[in-house]
Amino acid sequence: MWLFPESFSESTIADFGNGTGLGMTASGGLAFSSQTFSGITLRQNAYNHVALTRSGRVLTCYVVSLSGNSSSLSLQKATLTLKAKTDADGNYIIQGIPFSGEGSTYSIIPVYGIHEFKPAKALRFVGRNSMVHTADFEDVSSFPSTFGVRAFIRANSMGASVSQILPEIRYLWIQAAAYLGMACLVYRYQFRLMRKATGRRASLGN
Length: 206
Known about the structure:
- This protein folds into three domains: 2-80, no CATH class; 82-141, no CATH class; 143-206.
- Helix content is 25%, strand content 31%.
- The protein has a four-stranded antiparallel β-sheet, with no helix packed on it. Strands 2-3-4-5 form a four-stranded antiparallel β-sheet, with no helix packed on it.
- The chain is elongated, with a radius of gyration of 30 Å.
- It has helices spanning 146-156, 166-205, and strands at 2-3, 11-17, 20-24, 29-32, 35-41, 48-55, 58-65, 70-76, 103-108, 117-118, 122-127, 138-139.
- The chain contains two helices and twelve strands.
- It has 206 residues and is α+β, with helices and mostly antiparallel strands.
- Strand 3 and strand 4 form a beta hairpin.
């Protein structure tokens, strides 16, 4: 792309989505997301040709001016990892997956805090004749408040309605009833032990 900056300011040059993009700094530098290409500065009131190339997770920026001056710098960023966020129903789409030659193999890894998933990852081959895939994962984490946490996150972070978190609400009531039943059984058992001990002491007193 060609840039002709008349002045330098914090601004976005190109938005690539998912919170990533190429931006300009107040000093005329270039930055990808929050990381600056140190040593690369645009020429003010002049045409600058900016090009980005990517190889895996390494991003290289080239800047060439009409006067022939050129500079380049590479970044290795975690933000270059292809990713997507699930919606309230757990659906997700990863778009713009590059491949070379006949195709490339990618690992799809689900990540959500300390949760564990089954399978832990899924391998998919992306090529000219293999562009669309599905990969399903099951949350196999075991937490006492899993249903409550899941409902809270879906409602507050994903905008889920009450009807969409109704299964979690039902499970919470079932969980509460189960805990109440176990508490009653434990209390009954302890009460019986206490009555037996009281009866024995009364017998010894007589």
